[in-house]
Amino acid sequence: MSIAFSPATPQRFQEICALYQDVIRDMHARGLKQWEWDVYPTRAQLEDDITHGRLYRVEDEGRLIAAFALGDAMEPEYARITWEYGVRPATLHRFAMACESLDLASRVLAFVKEEALRLGYDSLRLDTCVEDSAMLKVFSSAMTREAGRTFFENPGVTSVCFESPLSDACPMLPLRMYPAYRHGDMTPWGGDALRTVYGRDIPDDRTGEALEISAIPQLESRTVTGETLPLLLERDGARLSGDYAGEAFPLLLKLLAARDSLSVQVHPDDAYAREHEGKLGKTEAWVILKAEEGASILYGLKEGVTLEALRAALEGGGDVERLIRRVPVKPGDVYYMPSGMVHAIGGGILLYEIQQSSDVTYRLWDFDRVNAAGEKRPLHIRQSLDVIVPELTGQIAHMPENDGCGLVTLLDVPAFHLECANVNGECELAPQPHAFRMLTALAGLLLSWQGDAIELKAGDSVLLPASCPPVTLMGVGQALISTPPARSGPRGRFQAYKGGIRA
After folding, report:
1. Among residues 43, 363, 377, 437, which one is catalytic?
2. Do 329 and 428 sit in the same domain of this protein?
3. Mind listing the pLDDT tens digit for each residue in 328-375?
4. Who's near 63: CB < 8 A, 6+ residues apart?
5. Domain that residue 137 falls in
6. Do 448 and 390 belong together in one domain?
7. Residue 363 annotated in active site
8. Is the pTM higher than 0.85?
């Protein structure tokens, strides 16, 4: 087959209409009812496509065998889909073939991608009827992702939508992430604050942790279409992670709701964790979001307390708690816990936690609590004493007042950078090509960018990819933004977003 592509012209309009009518008759014969002549597509639509240069002919040695529309006209039904690529998307519509040929469909799709890129588009979007198995097969193999399903009232069919970036320069859009939960016996200290404060549909009334943005195995956060964070990392590489492409996701973002006190614990540094656990170490920070009157945390050993004194208390049944600093907390307090620092969250606290992506925790003491069966939770005294650094005192900061618009640095430590975005009207976040950012709204806000927006409720988290275009927070409130540190090495393969893709 020797095929050629060319723009459709008014002079051959009747031939094009005949092709669409033949294709529709063949569809109906095969039981496919997604098209009905002059319902969809209509003569007026095809005339408009030709007038605006959107309609293309596909010929085999001068014989018309296919036609399609390509341009930036987007169906209203596409607004129901969560797209992940591009601020200048092209759409493929009204793709008709005179014969059912997977090879022809694949060749047309390859041309469409090249043509869309030539015209200045950065991504391609399309759909096909959920019952059209042949096209579904072609699009599933040729397009990057299935973006979701939408219903077209005219002609009354459900379609599956697909999209692909057209080059490494294509930006990746903000990703609303949905958490995994630790609850029940995993968090016996947990409560229902995530439901009462944020309206979450939590698993039970002992839900202690919402892993908002997580690549922890079996506890991965997901997009609205069910894509896990590890899948996104593998598929999108530098477009998502920037300089961290090809590596394990370095950070973990949680919301933590403590009805009762957590155990007294400590986390190892990277060297110890790699040697003994085969994992990252764990440095973390907390931002207190809600706190009952009198709530407190345990935060480092008291001045002068040695490992020997701690060991003696642990092994001799002494009062371990008296050796640890107890600090009262209030909303807006920010606490930094480097690896090796003893700590514990007290009861009646809801907090934001940013940490290295690790689940390595050594339980030093658990207030001699027992479960329903009368059993104490296991302790890790040897490992704890191995990694505790007695002199660590942490670092304390405070959330700023929400006055004006802009970013305020809360913590800048080797493991992560933590900022607060003050929003009173509009607060623009410039691109950051070295790495992803994780944004958590503390109040209802609108996150907008060229062509789209996400409504954020208090507690909602969004992953901003490294290639993300400029975004703007709109409304009145604050948001927390965490990101891994910048690196001096070579950048990832994607090109940073620059406005004005098409002249």
Report:
1. 363
2. no
3. 999 999 999 999 999 999 999 999 999 999 999 999 988 888 777 788
4. none
5. 3-165
6. no
7. yes
8. yes
